[in-house]
Amino acid sequence: SGSAERAYTPQTQSNRVQSFEPQFMEPLQNVTVTEGREATFTCVVDHLGGYRVAWIKADSKAILAIHNRVITHNNRMNVIHSDHKTWELKIRDVRRNDSGEYMCQINTDPMKHQVGHLNVVIPPDIIADETSGDVMTPEGSTVRLVCRAHGYPEPRVEWRREDGRHLVLRPPGQPKTEVLTWAGPELVLEKVARDDMGAYLCIASNDIPPAVSKRMVVQVH
Question: Ig-like domain: which residues (predicted)?
Fold first, then answer.
């Protein structure tokens, strides 16, 4: 807000008494955290003297906190001044839209600042109402199994048979192929035979644990 910005102005030469300029002692680390957990940025400043430390959301230019006082109306954020050099910005119950650049700033003239990036990740989750269940089908028909998942980053979906046997693919007009795994949200089994009977697993993963799977039984009669 305008009032917060006016209150947060660089100190002039005349009212500065310390002989040392404040300086950052280490870079602001990037933070990757799972949605719902807590994220912490740590800013270490030496020779702060009478200057103030502010936290700013760099992409929106919103002032989050000045010194020990939280300015933002976001009640999931708080600041901790643990020793005379360490300033922490904590964000509880992080959400995907908290992602972005966060700035630790000292009101010197010119201002000093450093920036860290918050990346909020979401483990994969299979979307139940967009995913197939068990199937019973006559021999020689086509079975289309669908498995959709969401998360951040976008999950990969892979298919395999529960018993470890090959998936048999018979695309129209092409030779039959056998593979151990198949990637993609849909698995199409053409001209199903009795050998295709059994349990199929779709596995969704995006390197954010845990991976999740759904089991589908195909019955051929």
Answer: 22-107, 124-213
Hey, what are 94's tokens?
């992080």
pLDDT in tens, 143-173: 999 999 999 999 999 999 999 999 999 999 9
Beta bridge partners of 81: 87
Is residue 36 left, alpha or beta, with left meaning phi > 0 and alpha meaning psi from -120 to 50? Answer: left
Residue 30: φ, ψ to 5°: -70, 150
pLDDT attached to residue 11: 54
d(CA 31, CA 38): 10
Give the residue among 147, 142, 166, 158 at the shortest CA–CA distance from 218: 142
Read off the pLDDT of residues 113-136 as tens digits, 9 standing for 90 and up.
Answer: 999 999 999 999 999 999 999 999
210 upstream amide cis, omega within 30 of 0: yes
Give start and end residues of each alpha helix (H) in the chain.
Answer: 2-7
Q: Which H or E element spans position 126?
A: strand 112-126
List CB contacts of 49: < 8 A, sequence separation 6 or more: 16, 17, 18, 20, 22
Give the SS3 label for residue 130.
helix
Secondary structure of residue 62 in the 3-state scheme: strand
Distance CA 105, CA 8 (A): 11
Cα 137 from chain centroid (whole Å): 40
Query: What does pTM read for this prediction?
Result: 0.79
Q: Are 124 and 155 in contact (CB under 8 A)?
A: yes
